[in-house]
Design brief:
CATH architecture of one domain in chain B: Orthogonal Bundle
Number of strands of chain B: 4
Strand content of chain A: 5-15%
Strand content of chain B: under 5%
Number of domains of chain A: 2
Structural class of chain A: alpha/beta
CATH superfamily of one domain in chain B: MetI-like
CATH class of one domain in chain B: Mainly Alpha
Oligomer: heterodimer
Strand order of the largest sheet of chain B: 1-2
Structural class of chain B: mainly alpha
Number of helices of chain B: 14
Largest interface: A-B, 41 and 30 residues
Shape of chain B: flat
Helix content of chain A: 40-55%
Number of helices of chain A: 20
Largest sheet of chain A: 8 strands, mixed
Distance between the termini of chain A: 93 Å
Helix content of chain B: over 70%
Shape of chain A: globular
Chain lengths: 450, 311
C-alpha cells in the first residue's frame, strides 16, 4: 500500500474540501427543501386518483382550470372539471345534490343564493376536520388569511364550514371623476347626498344621467337592500322574520324609487348590470352602484370612454349605518363524494395564496384572502389604481350580506323585484312592499317546512 | 287429377287469395314483436313523461322538500293566480301579433319575389338570412341596439328628428318590440312556404282572367288567394306553435320584464320549474299549456282542412 493510499495529501484534502463546499452551497438547500416538503406535507398521498369538479363559467374558473396542470404535477391527482353558465350550474347542482348521487366531488357554490339551501339539504361536507388535520392540510395553507366576510358566507349557523371562500364581491359606488370635476360636485358622504349629487350631475339635454343602477326585476333587489343596509337592517331577521314592511325598508324603497326615476337614464326599469355598465362606461351616467368586479371593463381603453377617469368609493353611510352589500362564492366537497381526500387537496391548492393573488393580477374579481390585497407589487402594477384597493379593503370592513340567507332567494328576488320595478313606474313604495311581503311570506314559511 | 271435392260444376276451384293468407291472429303473433322496440321508445319518451307530469301536477312537490298528494289544488291555484292568468293573456296577445304580422309581410314578400326582376336571386337570399341566425345571438344583438341611451335604433330615430323610444325598457312597448324581433326573424320562413305554394300554381286561370280583363287585385283575390290558402294555413300553424312556446328571445332580451310585462306562459313555466323549483305547480302549468296548444292546433288543422276542400 503506498503512502498516498493510507494518507490524504494536502492537495487532495483541499480538493475534497472545495468540492464539499460547492456541493454544500448548492445542493444542501435543495435537499433541505425536498426534506421539508416531504416531511411537512405529502402532496402525493392520493396520487393516481381522480376527482370531478363543477364550476361556474367565469374568469376565475378559467384561472382555476389553468392551474389544474400544476396541481396534477404536484399531487398526481387527475382533475376533470367543467364550467357551466351560472343559472344552469345552480340548476345542475340542485338536481344532482337532491338526487343524492352528484356526479362531482367538488362544487362551486354561490353562497349568497345557495347557502341556506345547501345547509338544509346537507349538500356539503364539513371542512373543519380537514383544516385541523395536519396530515391533510399543508401548513402553508394559512386558514387565518381568509377574510371574515367570505368565511361568514361559508360557515353555517351551527359552525360547520361548508366551503372555502374563493371570491367576495363588494358593492361599491363607481363615479365619473371628470363629470364630478366639471360640475364641482364632491363625492357623497351619505346616501341622501347621493341623490342631491345626482340631481346636480343629471343633464338629460346632454344624455347624461346623474345615477344608474339595476331596474330589471330580480337583478334590482341588491340595490334596494344596499340602501336598506344604510338603515342598519337586512331584509330578513336572524330568526327568519321578514323586515320588508318596516319604516327602514320603505325608506330604502323610496330612495330606490327617486334615484331610478328622477335622475336615471330613460328605460332604467329594464336595466340589468350590462345596460348600467354600458351607460356608465360610455360616460352617460355619473354614478353607478354595483359589484366591485366590474372595474376591468371600465378601465379597458378599447371598450370604455372613461378609462382612467373612474372613481371607486365605499357605499356612503345611510341614516343609521354604513355597510357594503356583499356576495360570495366558495368551493366545497359534496357529502356524497367518495374522493374527499383528493377533493380537499384540490381545494386547498386552488385557493392557496398564489392562486388567489392570480385572481387579482388578472382582474378577475376580488379574492377572499386578505394577503392578496397586501401585495404592494400587485397594487402598484394594477390598472385599477390604489383607490380601488382601498375601496375593497374598506368595504371588507363593513360588509354585510346583500341578500337574505333563506332557501327561496330567487323567489324573494322575483317578488320584491317586481315591486321595485312597479315603483320605478310610479307605484307607491309602501303599498308595493306590503303586497310583496304578503305574497312572499307563505313562500318563506313553507320553505323551512319538511 | 284434382280431388273430387275441388271440382265443382266442371270447374277447378283455385285457392283464393284470402285462403292463402295466414289468419290475422297468426300474423300478429308471428310479426307483432317487430313493433315492440318502437312501442318501448314511445312509452319511454312520450307516454311515461306525460303520465309522470300528470302525476306530479297533483302533488305539492318542491325539489328541496318532500312531496305530498294535493289532488287538484295546483290547478285551483292556477285559476286564482293573477300572474299566471296575465301570462296566458299576454301569450295570446304576443302570439296574435307574431302570427298575423309575419304572415302579412311574408305574403307580400312571396308575391314580390315570385315576380321576375333583376337581382331577384341575391335579394331573396338576403331576405332569408335572418332565419339562418341563432335566436340567442340575434337576441343579444337586438338587446344592444335597443339600449335607450346608446342603441343604434334611437340614434337612427334621432337622425329623423324623432325622440328616443323606450323599446323593451318600458312595460307598454316591450311586447310590440319583442314581436318586432320575431317578425324580423321569422317572416322569411313564411315567405319561403308561400313562395313554394306560388311556384306550384297553374298558369291557365291567370291567362283566362287576363283574357276576361281581370285586374291584378281581382286575380289575387279570386285566383291566387284561394289557391295558396292551404299554404297560408301551414304557415299559420307553424307560426302559432312557435309563438306560443317562444322562450329564447324573451329570456335573453327582457327576462320577462320590465316587471312581468313580457312574462309569457312559457317563461312563467320556466320560472316556476327551474328558478323556484315548484315542480308540482309547474307540471300543472305544463298540462294547461299542452291543452292550449293542442286545442289551437286542432282548430287550425280543422280550418286547414276546410281551406283544402274549398280549394
Amino acid at each position: 500500500m503506498s503512502r498516498t493510499d493510507r494518507f490524504i495529501t494536502r492537495r487532495a484534502a483541499l480538493k475534497t474540501g472545495a468540492s464539499a463546499a460547492v456541493l454544500g452551497a448548492f445542493g444542501a438547500p435543495m435537499v433541505a427543501r425536498h426534506a421539508i416538503g416531504q416531511s411537512a406535507f405529502n402532496w402525493k398521498r392520493f396520487a393516481g386518483q381522480k376527482i370531478d369538479v363543477l364550476l361556474v363559467k367565469n374568469p376565475r374558473s378559467d384561472l382555476m382550470q389553468a392551474a389544474e396542470k400544476q396541481f396534477t404535477e404536484l399531487t398526481g391527482i387527475k382533475v376533470e372539471s367543467e364550467q357551466v353558465p351560472e343559472q344552469q350550474q345552480r340548476q345542475k347542482a340542485m338536481i344532482e345534490f337532491t338526487s343524492g348521487k352528484p356526479s362531482f366531488d367538488v362544487a362551486h357554490l354561490s353562497m349568497h343564493v345557495q347557502k341556506r339551501l345547501s345547509e338544509k339539504g346537507k349538500w356539503m361536507d364539513d371542512l373543519r376536520p380537514m383544516v385541523a388535520d395536519q396530515s391533510m392540510t399543508n401548513p402553508q395553507f394559512d386558514f387565518s388569511d381568509y377574510g371574515k366576510a367570505g368565511l361568514n358566507f361559508c360557515t353555517a349557523a351551527d359552525g360547520k364550514l361548508n366551503a372555502i371562500p374563493t371570491f367576495v364581491d363588494y358593492w361599491i359606488l363607481y363615479y365619473n371623476k371628470e363629470l364630478f370635476e366639471q360640475k364641482g360636485v364632491a363625492y357623497p358622504k351619505t346616501m341622501d347626498e347621493i341623490f342631491t349629487a345626482a340631481q346636480k350631475l343629471n343633464d338629460p339635454a346632454k344624455g347624461i344621467a346623474g345615477f344608474v343602477s339595476r331596474g330589471l326585476k330580480n337583478a334590482n333587489v341588491p340595490v334596494w337592500t344596499s340602501w336598506m343596509l344604510g338603515m342598519g337592517m337586512e331584509t330578513v331577521s336572524t330568526d327568519g322574520k321578514l323586515l320588508t314592511e318596516t319604516p327602514e325598508a320603505i325608506w330604502a324603497a323610496e330612495l330606490y324609487k327617486k334615484l331610478n326615476r328622477d335622475v336615471a337614464p330613460p328605460g332604467t326599469v329594464g336595466f340589468n348590470w350590462n345596460e348600467c355598465q354600458t351607460s356608465f362606461s360610455q360616460g352617460r351616467a355619473a354614478m353607478w352602484l354595483d359589484g366591485i368586479g366590474f372595474a376591468t371593463p371600465l378601465e379597458d381603453k378599447t371598450k370604455s370612454r372613461i378609462a382612467g377617469k373612474v372613481g371607486y368609493g365605499v357605499v356612503p353611510a345611510g341614516p343609521k349605518a354604513q355597510h357594503s352589500a356583499i356576495f360570495g362564492d366558495g368551493l366545497g366537497i359534496a357529502s356524497a363524494s367518495k374522493n374527499k381526500g383528493p377533493a380537499w387537496f384540490y381545494i386547498q391548492f386552488i385557493t392557496n395564496k398564489a392562486n388567489q393573488l392570480n385572481i387579482l393580477k388578472n382582474g378577475a374579481g376580488s379574492p377572499a384572502r386578505n394577503s392578496a390585497f397586501a401585495n404592494q407589487d400587485v397594487v402598484r402594477e394594477s390598472i385599477f389604481g390604489k383607490q380601488w384597493f382601498d375601496t375593497v379593503l374598506a368595504s371588507a370592513q363593513i360588509g354585510r350580506p346583500g341578500l337574505p340567507v333563506i332557501i327561496p332567494v330567487t323567489e324573494f328576488r322575483d317578488i320584491f323585484g317586481v315591486a321595485l320595478t312597479n315603483m320605478i313606474s310610479g307605484a307607491d313604495p309602501k303599498t308595493e312592499l306590503a303586497k310583496a311581503t304578503a305574497a312572499f311570506k307563505p313562500v318563506l314559511e313553507k320553505s323551512e317546512q319538511g | 287429377m284434382p280431388p273430387a271435392s275441388e271440382v265443382t260444376a266442371g270447374r277447378v276451384a283455385l285457392p283464393s287469395r284470402a285462403a292463402s293468407r295466414p289468419p290475422a291472429h297468426d300474423f300478429s303473433r308471428k310479426y307483432g314483436w317487430f313493433i315492440l322496440p318502437a312501442l318501448i321508445v314511445i312509452a319511454a319518451v312520450i307516454v311515461f313523461p306525460w303520465l309522470f307530469t300528470l302525476w306530479m301536477s297533483v302533488h305539492d312537490w318542491n325539489v328541496t322538500g318532500d312531496h305530498r298528494f294535493v289532488a287538484f289544488d295546483n290547478y285551483r291555484r292556477l285559476v286564482s293566480d293573477e300572474r299566471f292568468l296575465e301570462s296566458v293573456a299576454r301569450t295570446f296577445w304576443f302570439t296574435a301579433l307574431a302570427v298575423i304580422i309575419p304572415i302579412a309581410l311574408g305574403l307580400w314578400a312571396a308575391l314580390t319575389f315570385h315576380r321576375h326582376f333583376p337581382w331577384r336571386g341575391i335579394l331573396r337570399t338576403v331576405f332569408v338570412m335572418p332565419m339562418m341566425a341563432t335566436p340567442v345571438a340575434i337576441a343579444l344583438v337586438w338587446t344592444m341596439m335597443f339600449h335607450p341611451q346608446l342603441g343604434v335604433l334611437n340614434y337612427l330615430l334621432s337622425l329623423a328628428g324623432i325622440p328616443p323610444f323606450a323599446w323593451v325598457y318600458s312595460p307598454d312597448t316591450v311586447i310590440p318590440t319583442l314581436v318586432m324581433v320575431e317578425v324580423w326573424h321569422w317572416t322569411p320562413l313564411v315567405m319561403l312556404i308561400l313562395l313554394g305554394g306560388l311556384a306550384g300554381l297553374p298558369t291557365d286561370p291567370y291567362e283566362s282572367a287576363l283574357i276576361d280583363g281581370a285586374s291584378r287585385w281581382q286575380m289575387f283575390r279570386y285566383i291566387t288567394w284561394p289557391l295558396i290558402l292551404p299554404y297560408v294555413m301551414i304557415a299559420v300553424v307553424i307560426r302559432t306553435i312557435d309563438s306560443l312556446k317562444v322562450f329564447d328571445t324573451i329570456a335573453v332580451i327582457s327576462q320577462g320584464g320590465p316587471g312581468t310585462a313580457s312574462e309569457t306562459l312559457n317563461y312563467f313555466l320556466y320560472l316556476q320549474a327551474f328558478q323556484f323549483y315548484n315542480i308540482g305547480y309547474a307540471s300543472a302549468v305544463v298540462v294547461v299549456f299542452f291543452v292550449i296548444i293542442i286545442a289551437l292546433s286542432l282548430l287550425l288543422l280543422h280550418l286547414r282542412q276546410k281551406t283544402k276542400w274549398n280549394a
